[in-house]
Amino acid sequence: GSLSGVDDEADIDAALTRRDLWGSLSGVSPINAAVDAHYTAMVAGEKFAQLRQVLLTKVKARRGKLATKVRNFEERMAMSDESELPRQQADLIMANVHLYEERAKELVVEDWYNPGSTLAIPIDPFKGPVDTAQALYKKSQKLKRSAAAIVPLKEEAQAELDYLLQIEVSVEQAESCAGVMDLRMMEDVRDELIAAGYMRKSAALLLLE
Prior knowledge:
Elements: H1 9-18, H2 30-80, H3 84-95, E1 106-110, E2 118-122, H4 128-173, H5 180-195, H6 203-206
Antiparallel strand pairs: 1-2
Helix pairs in contact: 2-4, 2-5, 3-4
Pfam families: NFACT_N (PF05833)
């Protein structure tokens, strides 16, 4: 039969789902089934590519910020490793208080930690050697506490960084979409990132559903 009276593409598609190309009883012809499958795969491929790009952009941006945070933590930990120096200076001052000359701005002592050498330790002339040593002990303890506080923060940031790197690698390796299942996999990654708080379910992402 003819398709007269059908004016637009949507109506043509509807008509072709009701009869095959040979005018037989209603149903979907093998040709139409192939067209539908091709269209479905094409749409899935487009959504896959768009979603893959969104995920990579989000993950890389977050990973970059975390990498900076981890480096900052490592730098602060390296500084806190110097906590031994003020403690050593304090020990040397207390062991050589008898050598201090009143109002002197430094105390020259034999350096136990570098045998055969001497060390000139700055002294606050208004505080004297004992109070200067106490201030150095406090500085050493503060640096140690700072290091202790930074360690778990650095470990947490590093674990998050490692997790995002795994996500990034898996998404990058999925370079093409072989079908709807590949799109579902990419959507699962998106949903995981949304649930973990790395992404918001924005209007742009809703369009990809």
